[in-house]
Amino acid sequence: MAIAVVHGDERTVLCAGTAEPGTRFETGSLTKTFTALLLAELAARGEVGYDDPLDRYLPHRLPGPPITLLHLATHTSGLPRMPLGLMRRSPIHSWFSNPYATFTSSDALAALTRTRLHHRPGTHVRYSNYGAGLLGHALAHAAGGHGSDYANLLNERVLAPLGLTDTDCDPHRPQAVGHWHGRPRPALLIPGLPAAGALRSSARDLLHYLQALLVPDTAGSPSLRAALADVQRPRLALPRTGNRHCLLWNLRPRNGRPLLHHSGTTRGFTAFAGFLPRSGTALAALANTTPAPTGSFVQAAYETLCYLEKTAPRSHHTGMC
User: Fold this and answer.
1) How many separate domains does the chain show?
2) 321 is a domain residue
3) Contact, 57 vs 141, CB < 8 A?
4) What's the CATH number where 173 sits?
5) Which residues are bridge partners to 9 per DSSP?
6) pTM confidence score
7) pLDDT in tens, 106-151
8) CA distance 233 to 88
9) Which of 68, 86, 277, 311 is the most exposed place for a label (fewest CB within 10 A)?
């Protein structure tokens, strides 16, 4: 396990077991927050618009109202959680170890022609790994590449400028061994939907990532600085809860302040990241085991972040949202 904490002027990485600050963990759906940052960076450059239709960048179009990039980034596209054909392409023996390994970029795009939306785009929130994966393909095409170029584009526009040397989508670089019910798992392969869950990172890198989100004006190029602020802007309100959706970040009001968070899991890892811009407090937690059914690891990380927020020095409030 490895934990990164920002608390006022304090910066801390804590490790347990064999982990070190630079040990790479699979982050699962925490990848989506990086995909959101890539979307915002391209939007800041004028290369895409949030209201651009998905079919402007991908070869297949669904009948009916267009799905926009913003729909994909707020889970309001109406797309299913997983693409059609994923189960059929994954042998039974691999479903509990590497369910995405044989599902390619071509499969992900071809599935669009057979997909029926659950609702009209923009009318309901429905979490979709498929939608986040397609967003990555669209951004790669918008920047002049192919869907398989997502990892390179993310590195060029986000990871390298932020100095995140431990972070990428490469399953072949050294990383911690994941565990599922105590059994070692192979490294995750997700060639068809990398933008939804392929990223590996370390506590050291996530510390830098959270620092950049807390103080966007100190990071990278003007377009990246603008993107770091833009991903934190609420885009829609969830009924009856007071919660909001930003660009693939979840936002909960806490003591009059926004708390942004996201978690991720794979067949062998659990990850959490959260931050409170107005208190200068952030926490990331990584473990090389799949989560318990109760979600206790993620819940403990969230509660620790809330506890740190209570003790955040007033002098370090940035006033940013």
Assistant:
1) 1
2) no
3) yes
4) 3.40.710.10
5) none
6) 0.94
7) 999 999 988 999 999 999 999 999 999 999 999 999 998 776 799 9
8) 38
9) 311
